[in-house]
Amino acid sequence: MENNTIVNNSDMNEAHRSHIVKLIHQKGVCSRAELAKATGLTQASITKITASLIDSGVLSESGIIKGNGNRRAIGLKLNTKNNLVIAVKFSRYVYTAAVFDISGKLYKQREKEFDMNDDPREVLTDMKKDIHELLDEYENVLAIGMAVPGPYLRHRGRIAIISRLSSAWHDISFVDEFENEFNKPVFIEQDANAGAMAEWWFGNHDKPINSLAYMLVGEGVGSGIVVEDSLLLGKQGAASEIGHISLDINGPRCECGNYGCLELFASTPVLLQRAKQELPQLFKKSRHKRSEEYELIFSAAREGDHDALKLLKQVGKYIAYGCVSLINSYNPDIIVIGDVMSKAGDILLPVITETVRERAIPELFEEVTIKMSELKIDPTLYGAAAIATDKVLSRPSEFLTVRVQ
Ligand SMILES: [Zn+2]
């Protein structure tokens, strides 16, 4: 009984520390009075907890700021510089590894393209080597976050289906491969969930939000839902697989087993395939990189190419059907659309908004904001950093310092 009480107290203290550290992370600088108001803790408790966090180097004072009621107060900020995370994005033909600090500042990024039919063992060996090199270069890495394509089965550590990737990848357990490879904890999450966390942690939204849906529309289509700081995971970690809802029950068979899935109408490979058939003149010149091929379609539409515009608008409608399902299923404050398609937001967003207005439950549509991701860094990569940062800030005494009591 007594032991339980001690554990509970210690958990409670850690929860308070985490709450405070996360609030300061969110706002940049906070006064003690603001922290007391936001957490509901007494001023005396806040003074005690922040003193121990300052003492252990997690926080520092940042000079005088305007506090509640314009009163002058001492600001508190997070010491970010010495607290780093490594983010890894694994996608179908490229992986990226990068170093961030816990405020989301990017220090270094490297990426490598591979062939979808390459031996997975060789690709994994290269990834590990790159991460080891970053760990050698940066001493203060606390944790590693990794984003992989969904549906990712977290209890098995592997990806359920990876469309268009060699079947040899189906047997790879990312957890087995990476869990004990480095002397740092590794947290693995599916790409759309990572993107949702990036928008939650680092997105700049106009209003306070409690729930966020992130829709990834790129090589695949997926979504991640965050409600009050937490990802909606489901039993196996694969909740909200919006890419595999059936839009046409008699449509083509999808690799997931369903028919006419959203991913078969709105992902970038489908856009590219149709563009190559319907707009062959765009691709006549020398070989382009994949990312440049999308840009060719987007630019043609912007320059008034009727067929390119029509094609993109059709894709926009399918993205909208996905948004309608997200709104009707989760009733989020905001839907953020990210990955490749967000680069054509100027063309797509008006179509998406109009189509959603026509189809979603009107009262729900009135309250939801739909926007394109405005993050300057790839949301999936940034999300891998956000996943690691979230873990670090949730357990400050474990990760940020050894001296917090
Ligand atoms: Zn499917």
Structure description:
The radius of gyration is 23 Å and the shape is globular. It has a five-stranded mixed β-sheet with strand order 6-5-4-7-10, sandwiched between helices. Strands 13-12-11-14-15 form a five-stranded mixed β-sheet, with helices on both faces. It has a three-stranded antiparallel β-sheet with strand order 1-3-2. Mean pLDDT is 88; it is low at 1-7. The protein has 14 helices and 15 strands. Helices cover 43% and strands 20% of the residues. Strand 8 and strand 9 (158-159) form a beta hairpin. It is an alpha/beta fold. The longest helix has 26 residues, at 2-27. It folds into three domains: 2-78, Winged helix-like DNA-binding domain superfamily/Winged helix DNA-binding domain (Arc Repressor Mutant, subunit A, Orthogonal Bundle), CATH 1.10.10; 84-195 and 381-399, Nucleotidyltransferase, domain 5 (2-Layer Sandwich); 204-373, Nucleotidyltransferase, domain 5 (2-Layer Sandwich), CATH 3.30.420. It binds zinc ion. Zinc ion is lined by residues 244, 254, 256, 258, 261, 263.
Features:
405 residues; alpha/beta; Arc Repressor Mutant, subunit A; Nucleotidyltransferase, domain 5; 3 domains; 5-stranded mixed beta sheet; 14 helices; binds zinc ion
Give the topology, please.
Elements: H1 2-27, E1 29-31, H2 32-39, H3 43-55, E2 59-66, E3 72-78, E4 84-90, E5 94-101, E6 106-113, H4 120-137, E7 141-148, E8 152-153, E9 158-159, H5 174-178, E10 186-190, H6 191-202, E11 211-217, E12 221-227, E13 230-231, H7 263-266, H8 268-278, H9 290-302, H10 306-330, E14 334-338, H11 345-359, H12 362-367, E15 369-372, H13 379-394, H14 396-399
Parallel strand pairs: 4-7, 7-10, 11-14, 14-15
Antiparallel strand pairs: 1-3, 2-3, 4-5, 5-6, 8-9, 11-12, 12-13
Helix pairs in contact: 2-3, 6-13, 8-10, 9-10, 10-11
Bound molecules: zinc ion.
Zinc ion (ZN) binds next to loops.
